Amino acid sequence: RLGVPDGPGAPLDELVGAYPNYNEEEEECRYYRRKRLGVLKNVLAASAGGMLTYGVYLGLLQMQLILHYDETYREVKYGNMGLPDIDSKMLMGINVTPIAALLYTPVLIRFFGTKWMMFLAVGIYALFVSTNYWERYYTLVPSAVALGMAIVPLWASMGNYITRMAQKYYEYSHYKERDEQGPQQRPPRGSHAPYLLVFQTIFYSFFHLSFACAQLPMIYFLNHYLYDLNHTLYNVQSCGTDSQGILLGFNKTVLRTLPRSGNLIVVESVLMAVAFLAMLLVLGLCGAAYRPTEEIDLRSVGWGNIFQLPFKHVRDFRLRHLVPFFIYSGFEVLFACTGLGLGYGVCSVGLERLAYLLVAYSLGASASSVLGLLGLWLPRQVPLVGGAGVHLLLTLGLFFWAPAPRVLRHIWILYVAAVLWGVGSALNKTGLSTLLGILYEDKERQDFIFTIYHWWQAVAIFVVYLGSSLPMKAKLAVLLLTLVAATTSYLWMEQKLRRGAVPRQPRIPRPQHKVRGYRYLEEENSDESDAEGVHGG
């Protein structure tokens, strides 16, 4: 017989009472530890998803443009279909469409939510990959336009997501303080900054690896079909600072033999599988950035206000001072790929070594993202200004260097320049994203701020696209002037903040809780409808 008391006199506590060995404080500690591990899982999943997405996109675009550049490949496979015209319109769709992103990105992020906006944008990248199975005008150009529309929403929602994860990690690490202060009390300003710095370092360590991932199709597939530099660079007369446009005099045939269609389909299928894996990572492993009630509040400020608020943030002098840095951030990534990679690298040591130069840039940037952690001990200006200083010295050096075509003697200089440019890129990206998350820690305005940041980056990339035919000296001069203006403007902003200047931020309207489809419990009218209230009265 079990020793369970029975009968009317049995004490109720012995039947339904608390577990005798239950320790409330220990269980609470375990609960919040699980929450913190969940946040780390979200950061790693978002970082890996972004790396795979961008790596697949860059790798496919690079392979596609090299194949379509070859005259023999175009004539044999596509005849008179006009592939160069299709490629130019595709690049136009990718580079021009983001200019309109400021009009719709905040509305899309608030409508779908941060996580679902990330998932939708990664899906559009996967759509772009899938259209390369059947390369026609009506597949490539519309998918490129859709991709251009998704660029700013993807990276704005990613930046917002990482910042929110840092704030949530702080809440779960200091839950006892929150219980003492009350759930409505906001944490001290800047309290989440150390976690934000670590999470942005993790994110950009993964992100910069995407440039190395993008070179895998080149290294393991396309490089076996390429002519060597003596053929492709036969008519190239000048490189580096003396060059004009992009690879003037480069041979029109770069493929020794044409790759079989079956092999191309295998490569594209692998890229499609990786894009699909990135979608699954974001869908299955990334948790929500906001609680459901917070999502409702963010939408309930009114769609007209959501549309206007990015423009109203121009009043804030901090954003105005950071705009040159936003523009430079777009310039320097494109220069690493096109200026340094093509104008100095391919032009002098051949197309077959482009992949290895970009891998050097990628690994240098990924490893150097850890230097962003210096902000935990040094003033926040140090990483950002340090990255700008590295780029300034490199740009001045490149301004006076014109490597000779078809000469491999100086290839080590190219690798050193690529790694050092990656160091500057890592400090730039990590420093800017961390700075924005610290200056604008109100969850009601973070998506607007990251939208403005990535929109200016897209504008800079559009300007580079328009000026691709300029001489290298002009490109370097623009890069140098933008860098000096960005650093000066940023240090001036920090000086203003030290003097106590108060930024003018637009007011975020209070959420209008009486929105059709949502019902809040309030004391005065409970959850009754208007009609019930009238009849009851």
Automatic annotation (TrEMBL):
The keyword Transmembrane applies. Keywords: Adaptive immunity, Antiviral defense, Cytoplasmic vesicle, Endoplasmic reticulum, Endosome, Glycoprotein, Immunity, Innate immunity, Lysosome, Membrane, Phosphoprotein, Transmembrane, Transmembrane helix. One of its GO terms (molecular function) is Toll-like receptor binding. The chain crosses the membrane at residues 43-69, 89-109, 116-134, 140-162, 195-222, 264-290, 322-342, 354-377, 384-404, 410-427, 448-468, 474-493. InterPro entries: UNC93B1. It is found in: Cytoplasmic vesicle, Phagosome; Endoplasmic reticulum membrane; Endosome; Lysosome. It is a multi-pass membrane protein. It comes from the Eukaryota. GO terms for biological process: adaptive immune response; defense response to virus; innate immune response; intracellular protein transport; toll-like receptor 3 signaling pathway; toll-like receptor 7 signaling pathway; toll-like receptor 9 signaling pathway; toll-like receptor signaling pathway. One of its GO terms (cellular component) is lysosome. The keyword Transmembrane helix applies. Plays an important role in innate and adaptive immunity by regulating nucleotide-sensing Toll-like receptor (TLR) signaling. Required for the transport of a subset of TLRs (including TLR3, TLR7 and TLR9) from the endoplasmic reticulum to endolysosomes where they can engage pathogen nucleotides and activate signaling cascades. May play a role in autoreactive B-cells removal. Belongs to the unc-93 family. PANTHER family: PROTEIN UNC-93 HOMOLOG B1 (PTHR46744:SF1). This is Protein unc-93 homolog B1. It comes from Neovison vison (American mink). The gene is UN93B.
